[in-house]
Automatic annotation (TrEMBL):
It comes from Solibacillus kalamii. This is Protein GrpE. Homodimer. Keywords: Chaperone, Cytoplasm, Stress response. Residues 1-27 are annotated as: Disordered. The keyword NAD does not apply. The keyword Chaperone applies. Residues 1-14 have a biased composition (Basic and acidic residues). It comes from the Bacteria. Residues 15-27 have a biased composition (Acidic residues). Belongs to the GrpE family. Participates actively in the response to hyperosmotic and heat shock by preventing the aggregation of stress-denatured proteins, in association with DnaK and GrpE. It is the nucleotide exchange factor for DnaK and may function as a thermosensor. Unfolded proteins bind initially to DnaJ; upon interaction with the DnaJ-bound protein, DnaK hydrolyzes its bound ATP, resulting in the formation of a stable complex. GrpE releases ADP from DnaK; ATP binding to DnaK triggers the release of the substrate protein, thus completing the reaction cycle. Coiled coil: none annotated. The gene is grpE.
Length: 185
């Protein structure tokens, strides 16, 4: 009987050990599952962060490419700006020379030559996009005109340009020099 009792005790101990081992295994498996879930969550968060970073970098690249293209287009569009700005005083001097009254035949000949040079220079600059800003008789626009005087003329409306003191020029849609004008009060 003692042997049976010992056998029963041994079986009971083995069963207890199995239950304890099973419980420990289950706990270990639960811990492993929790660690896996935590690892998956971390990896998903990291992936979402990298996706967002990629999208920001892609947007930055697209913006840089667009800005570079616009800068290149502007540089091409306004490539002649510095040269034309340097030629404005030459155009002014030729225009002043053409305002002189001619009385002799020699002066008329010289006048005709200056007029031809002026017209040729004006045509060449117009090919590059230079245009004269209209002033006299127009409404004053501070984007294109610079008022340096005010005069009184009761026959014209307020804000109308009475006289152009210096011609203004623009290159395509950019003002190189505003017209200096006298405006009606």
């Amino acid at each position: 009987m003692s042997e049976t009792k010992n056998n029963e005790e041994l079986q009971h101990e083995e069963t207890t050990e199995e239950v304890v081992e099973t419980a420990e295994t289950t706990e270990t498996e639960e811990i492993a599952v929790d660690e896996k879930d935590q690892k998956i969550a971390e990896l998903e968060a990291k992936l979402a962060e990298e996706d967002a970073r990629y999208l920001r970098l892609r947007a930055d690249y697209d913006n840089l490419a667009r800005r570079t293209r616009l800068d290149r287009e502007a540089a091409e569009k306004y490539r002649a700006q510095s040269l034309l700005t340097e030629l404005l005083p030459v155009l002014d001097n030729l225009d002043r020379a053409l305002q002189i009254e001619v009385t002799t035949e020699e002066a008329a000949s010289l006048y005709k030559g200056v007029q031809m040079v002026y017209d040729q220079l004006l045509a060449a600059t117009e090919k590059e996009g230079l245009s004269i800003i209209p002033a006299e008789g127009e409404s004053f626009d501070p984007n294109f005109h610079q008022a340096v005087m005010q005069e009184q003329d009761s026959e014209k409306e307020t804000g109308i340009i009475l006289r152009e003191l210096q011609k203004g020029y623009q290159l395509k849609d950019r003002v190189l020099r505003p017209s200096m004008v006298s405006v009606n009060e």
